[in-house]
């Protein structure tokens, strides 16, 4: 029994070690969802596209009443606060599902070696359903971990004083999609002697 638990522990830690480097690879710039509250009390949700001296641009901007606004443009002078959250939901859910499926599949495989079933069909079904159950459990745990990380990745920005746009622009600019895409696309320059 101790050897069985030791094997399960080795496989689970190995899978976790394999999943972490894969999740560390960035495929593109991060996207941030924003909730903008105006001085009139209206709320708008969308992807933070751009910020300039005239306003905030949100893609897929919807108000709290699910009415689409024109181009997602909000004048900067009417903004009371902006809540920014990084969108990273899929990473933890997929990693949790993969690790859960592999771990529970391995546990059932080891258990079936001790007590083999009578037919190959029941052997395959047992492995398949245990891997599916592990994937569902891992997906649920990944979703729960994602909810915890969403709270940690939430940032609130407000103007320094009413009517101030400069500080709000400087605070929001690193989270804009256009700004982050420009940083991501920037090519390194090398100093070459002439």
How would you describe what is shown here?
The protein is of the alpha+beta class and about 190 residues long. It is about 50% helix and about 20% strand. It has a 6-stranded antiparallel beta sheet. α1 runs antiparallel to α2 and α2 (about 90-115) runs antiparallel to α3. The termini are far apart. The relative contact order is 0.16. The model has no long low-confidence stretch (mean pLDDT about 75).
Strand runs, count: 6
On the 0-100 scale, what is the average pLDDT? Answer: 77
Query: C-alpha Rg, in Å?
Result: 24 Å
Helix content percent band: 40-55%
Unreliable runs = none
Helix and strand run: HEEEEEHHEHH
How many alpha or pi helices?
Answer: 5
Main sheet overview: 6 strands, antiparallel
- Taking the alpha carbons of the first and last residues, their distance comes to 70 Å
